Amino acid sequence: MTLSELCIRRPVMTTLITATIIAFGIFGFRLLPVSALPKVDFPTIAVTATLPGASADTMAASVAGVIERQLSTIAGISSMSSSSSQGTTQIIIQFDLNRSIDAAALDVQTALTIAQRRLPIEMTIPPSFRKVNPGDFPVLFVALG
Q1: Does residue 117 form part of some domain?
Q2: E strands, 3-143, where?
Q3: Averaged over 134-143, what is the pLDDT?
Q4: Which pLDDT band, with edges at 50, 70 and 90, does 32 fall under?
Q5: pLDDT value at position 37?
Q6: Which of 5, 47, 113, 122 could form a disulfide with 129 if both were Cys (CB 3.0 to 4.6 A apart)?
């Protein structure tokens, strides 16, 4: 007697076994520790550079490009994005999850020191960086009015 034949000949038993499996599944699902927004610390560093009076194109070409080329030599970068506006460039670097944020900050500091030699002479304020946790920012803004 095969399993299919047994299930066809005994429909009550099949229904009870199916109901038991579903009940255990629901019970087990309720015990799973699931969070709507899990706490994950992404190792992220934001670099900011300012050159007063420079256009966005100048910032992108002569500041962001130089800094990005130097930062791209750092190991463990998963993504890097930059945005340039009037007199300001911001570069967001996200590292692999297994990378220590403190070690990454040291590497960024070294890269910025090296890149500073190739930045425009008019740039009197050196680029700065800070550790950022994207999980600390709100997911949604709601404006009522």
Answers
A1: yes
A2: 44-50, 77-85, 88-95, 128-132
A3: 72
A4: confident
A5: 65
A6: 47
